[in-house]
Inverse folding.
């Protein structure tokens, strides 16, 4: 297929991660190799910024800054949770789509790359379909990104390896701390990690468990209905035996009725999901109230997905490769695909590569932990899960240090002149 | 003064840190150089274990494990919060003291080193006084340790440099994350750190602020009465200007009446202090309730003091030096002192050494942040504080890695045979 000559636009969407900037670096550095790509633009704050014609010129950035994106957390171009929602707001969505293509035309955008999770892949898919419908020459490739690891078809999602490396290390460290204080009274510590509907992050902390008595002692996944009595029996058994118990809980755990045990359902985010907090606090009340065991909580919150100081080199390397692969695919004439990570196990040595999956198959499909990887009986993960997760945390990213703290980069984001009237 | 020939006992007390094991490594490695020290014992779980004659033989440990203590978090010998309280429980305290000296005699303990904070230095002081009173030949040296950094006379306390290196990095990373999501609606993130009465840890996060607009935007110290309106005005001003605001709060902040804003005062720890939780949650309610600004919290809890994966090399090196210096002082005939860290500023180049301070002057004195280092007006720290804190976070401790996670050591703790009847 003939190359399109024109400009490239890349943007980021959804919750930031420690690896999403590595993907952007991959896009930019690969794009620089292709003459048919004239300007390299970034959309500020995802689709929202593009709708407002807020673009920046990435060729204006220092090469050092682009390279620094490989180890800099969060979304360097800014991100958003804005969704073009054809189902609930078809009129608004149609307007948005018209506006997007006005912006694309005004800036001769012929390559569009969007890094994000489920919602973002859905957006990329719709833009690809619209381009075809409008006969506008545009290559659209989705770049996977989510700490939640819930995109289908890809081996894993950039961001996931880093978040579990950090969370598993935290579980290990908190475990040593709590065990060193353990007295006959016993104590419990509950560590809450992200994960609204899929428990991939909570599950990943199993990597801290190098021997059977080490933490985590209990992993509570959002996909497994919470059984209070069974949980308390396991806490009690663990505290009686080891004098302490470390529990890891995914924020979205639900009771048998499907209600999130720590949710304040009156507050919704812009995608219409309830904003959660407090699963760990709720469990603490239960443990202290019923077992009288001293209980503390750790709520890692945003710290976990931004912890680039201890990111997984495998993760950021795969993230970078996804960005590169997206550009290569587009140059080869592909559009309407998501890049996926492919793992090949060569006698225990893992080889990573990338592939492509049609966005039509990806969009809005949520990938859950295979049921047979969950050890329900023991609140733990089976060996299959460990074999899956372990290679993802290998290797350490070395960010440069300045005065004992990391030196991350910030982009200049010099603006591209607006040529359109302001968005209605 | 003549050397005492006999055995050494070292123990750890109070909350664990990322540097307290480095001090124990310093004690053990230095002790190995002196022939007058015959056996090197560890007391398990501090004074509590010693009272129960729970000792382990540290000469039985692998040299590799002792070296590994330099980078292993928490208290490898176990710790406790047990206090010999002559004021509130004089009878029990006298019994405990008798028992301690029975254990010392039974195992020919002539050198006793106790690593801990204020309460532990007080315990060391009392043991020293008792030894003198009983004419029992014993050299007692306190080893400083506390993330709270509130021991007097010492430049800083081992554990502090590491906790602020981790917390400042977390503030930096969460700041980049939140700012990358910032939209016109604005958002706020409140990061709660430890610090019951002194705000040294919260203050230390100022190191993340490399330029005036970077976080932390607001630091709330326990020693500064919380003024809700002034705080909210600063949050609003920051969100209006930058679209986001990062607040760091020491867990023990109090209102004008001196009541902790996040305390559940009905639960007390064994020292009689209220067990705190929830300053960040309380502030979130206030910000969301009054400003309607979307607010999230991060509660680092035990993770902050155990974060050896990102410990400060300056901190663990100083911790190790304190352990060495304790043994050297005892060998030289000193008893009843705490080792202190001494800083010499040679034209901007910091030189670290150790000194000794009489325990009588140290015990139960709390060292607060100098008032003139606090920028009350702006909820920030002044340059004097930054100049003080910056050298403490320099350098990174490199723990060996295994499968992408740190490989910390655990001691064998082979028990010394008990020779006494069980404690009454």
């Amino acid at each position: 297929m003939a190359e399109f000559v024109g400009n490239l636009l890349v943007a980021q969407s959804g919750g930031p991660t420690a690896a999403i900037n590595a993907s952007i670096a991959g896009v930019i550095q690969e794009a620089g190799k292709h003459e048919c790509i004239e300007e390299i633009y970034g959309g500020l704050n995802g689709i929202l910024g593009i709708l407002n014609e807020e673009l920046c010129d990435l060729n204006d950035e220092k090469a050092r800054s682009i390279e620094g994106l490989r180890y800099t957390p969060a979304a360097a171009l800014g991100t958003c949770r804005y969704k073009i929602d054809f189902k609930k707001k078809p009129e608004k969505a149609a307007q948005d789509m018209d506006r997007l293509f006005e912006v694309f035309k005004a800036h001769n955008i012929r390559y569009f790359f969007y890094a994000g999770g489920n919602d973002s892949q859905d957006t990329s898919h719709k833009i690809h379909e619209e381009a075809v419908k409008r006969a506008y020459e545009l290559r659209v490739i989705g770049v996977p990104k989510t700490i939640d690891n819930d995109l289908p078809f890809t081996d894993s999602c950039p961001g996931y390896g880093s978040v579990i490396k950090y969370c598993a290390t935290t579980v290990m460290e908190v475990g040593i701390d709590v065990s060193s204080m353990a007295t006959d009274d016993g104590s419990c510590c509950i560590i809450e990690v992200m994960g609204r509907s899929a428990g991939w992050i909570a599950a990943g902390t199993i990597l801290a468990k190098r021997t059977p008595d080490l933490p985590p002692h209990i992993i509570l996944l959002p996909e497994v209905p919470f059984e209070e009595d069974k949980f308390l029996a396991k806490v009690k058994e663990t505290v009686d035996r080891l004098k302490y118990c470390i529990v890891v809980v995914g924020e979205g755990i639900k009771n048998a009725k499907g209600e999130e045990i720590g949710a304040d359902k009156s507050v919704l985010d812009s995608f219409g999901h309830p904003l959660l907090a407090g699963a760990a606090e709720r469990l603490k009340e239960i443990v202290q109230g019923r077992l009288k065991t001293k209980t503390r909580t750790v709520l890692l919150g945003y710290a976990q997905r931004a912890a680039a100081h201890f990111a997984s080199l495998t993760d950021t390397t795969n993230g970078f490769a996804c960005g590169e692969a997206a550009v290569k695919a587009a140059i080869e004439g592909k559009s309407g695909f998501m890049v996926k990570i492919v793992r090949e196990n060569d006698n225990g040595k893992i080889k990573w590569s990338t592939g492509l999956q049609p966005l039509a198959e990806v969009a809005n499909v949520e990938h859950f932990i295979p049921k047979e990887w969950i050890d329900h009986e023991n609140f733990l993960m089976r060996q299959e899960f460990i074999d899956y997760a372990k290679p993802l945390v290998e290797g350490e990213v070395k960010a440069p240090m300045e005065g004992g703290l990391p030196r991350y980069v910030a982009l200049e984001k010099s603006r591209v002149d607006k040529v359109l009237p302001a968005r209605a």
